[in-house]
């Protein structure tokens, strides 16, 4: 089992930045592929970013590429999502997820564990 706890969400103005954190426990963190997803009101949950177990390969959705950066610190069992140049359309609940198999990381069905989410609200 893996427990994931997100933090760092909040209310920010458009153009500003936030950094989300996701702390993991319960399994060797360095063996897990990690991802971030988000779900806006009335919309389906969508892929945001993912990172491989060692942290040298990342994937991003087109909507956040160039603005968001995913990273991880295996010594701290934590994955981060640095969000810059935030837009109102980035408003959503952001979820951290862990994948054991590391396949097709853009698909939420390929993740085995999920956090409870943290709200990010971007005002215009």
How would you describe what is shown here?
Helix content is 0%, strand content 49%. The protein has no helices and eleven strands. The strands form two sheets. Strands 2, 4, 5, 6, 9, 10 and 11 form a seven-stranded mixed sheet that branches. The chain has a four-stranded antiparallel sheet with strand order 1-3-8-7, with no helix packed on it. A hairpin with a 6-residue loop joins β4 and β5. The protein is globular, with a radius of gyration of 13 Å. By secondary structure, the protein is mainly β.
Keywords:
124 residues, 7-stranded mixed β-sheet, 4-stranded antiparallel β-sheet, 0% helix
Average pLDDT: 96
Broad structural category: mainly beta
Helical stretch tally = 0
Question: Helicity range of the residues?
Answer: under 10%
Task: List the uncertain runs.
Answer: none
How many whole angstroms does the radius of gyration measure?
Answer: 13 Å
Compact summary:
This protein has 124 residues and is an all-beta fold. The chain contains no helices and eleven strands.
Q: Helices and strands in order, then pairings?
A:
Layout: E1 3-7, E2 10-13, E3 18-25, E4 33-39, E5 46-51, E6 58-60, E7 68-73, E8 78-83, E9 92-99, E10 113-114, E11 118-123
Parallel strand pairs: 2-11
Antiparallel strand pairs: 1-3, 3-8, 4-5, 4-9, 5-6, 7-8, 9-10, 9-11
């Amino acid at each position: 089992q893996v427990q994931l706890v997100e933090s760092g969400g909040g209310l920010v103005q458009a153009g500003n930045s936030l950094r989300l954190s996701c702390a993991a426990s319960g399994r060797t963190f360095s063996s897990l592929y990690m991802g971030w997803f988000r779900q806006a009101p009335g919309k389906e949950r969508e892929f945001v970013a993912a990172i491989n177990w060692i942290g040298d390969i990342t994937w991003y959705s087109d909507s956040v590429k160039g603005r968001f950066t995913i990273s991880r610190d295996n010594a701290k069992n934590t994955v981060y999502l640095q969000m810059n140049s935030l837009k109102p359309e980035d408003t959503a609940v952001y979820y951290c997820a862990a994948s054991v198999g590391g396949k097709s990381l853009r698909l939420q069905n390929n993740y085995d564990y999920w956090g409870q989410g943290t709200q990010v609200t971007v005002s215009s």
